[in-house]
Amino acid sequence: MGIASDILADWHASQAALLWQVDLGIDEWLLDEALNRYDLPEAVKPAPMLAPAVAASAAPVARGVAPLPVPDVPKVDPVAEARALAARANSLDELRAAIGAFEHCEIKRGARNLVFSGGLPGARVLILGEAPGAEEDREGRPFAGRAGQLLDDMLEAIGLSREGTTKDTAVYLTNILPWRCLGYGEPVPDDVAMMRPFIERHIELAAPEVIVVMGNTPLFALTGTRGIARARGQWLQALGRPVLPMLHPDSLLRTPIAKREAWQDLLALEARLSQ
Ligand code: URA
After folding, report:
1. Which atom of ligand 1 approaches the CA of 142 most closely?
2. What is the CB neighbour count within 10 angstroms for residue 136?
3. N or C: which end of the chain has fewer CB within 10 A?
4. What is the reported pTM?
5. Per-residue model confidence (pLDDT) at position 18
6. pLDDT of 244 strictly over 70
7. Predicted pLDDT of residue 218
8. Domain ranges of the chain
9. Could you say which of 3.20.20.70, 2.60.200.30, 3.40.470.10, 3.40.50.980 is the CATH number of the domain covering 78-273?
């Protein structure tokens, strides 16, 4: 029996093989059959490289021709541009359009959707996550996957929901980055720095009473503090508002025992809202 038939015959082996691919970063099936995109048709294959002497005699017209001047491309400071665009936005709709028109953040090219926000603008609580994942990218709304379902359950336990219709019962949700980052690990600091002016303006326009930062990326981006495990549950201050750091629901899915701490933090949030 070969490896492939072993895997097909055994449920656990199949699951292990699937998880191994997820670990490698493969999270979407595009085609049933593998396609070698390096295998170009003959017509578009580049001509074989010639040795320099052969190449020189084969292209006499190219000799003595001055290379075309490369035009000077004006340098832009993406952070300054983001700041200017964000400052001009006078409503959440204008801010969404400004982010949509911002072309300097590379991750935008790999994303299907701009994931701007969810829930009720003006809610007392703003939940700030890191970046959309595969599911959020597909659906165009934040916290749409398993972590989002857990987050909904957690919020419901203290009488809050993204479907809430009043500012006391609803939450507003957004992320530090509005586009999915492909690959693994935390978003790169340059992308976070570039998008920070937008999130500052976003918070200003949504005007929450308190901000809950979910995980390390929004904690550091807003407060400059590192280490969510130590910071969680302690009220901090950023952008003139109280900030409560909490463990990210993704990490609660990986480490369910940590839900105990998350529950304490939810109670701290509930107590603050009832003051
Ligand atoms: N994780 C986040 O931080 N944000 C999302 O929107 C989804 C998962």
Report:
1. 6
2. 26
3. C
4. 0.76
5. 62
6. yes
7. 98
8. 78-273
9. 3.40.470.10
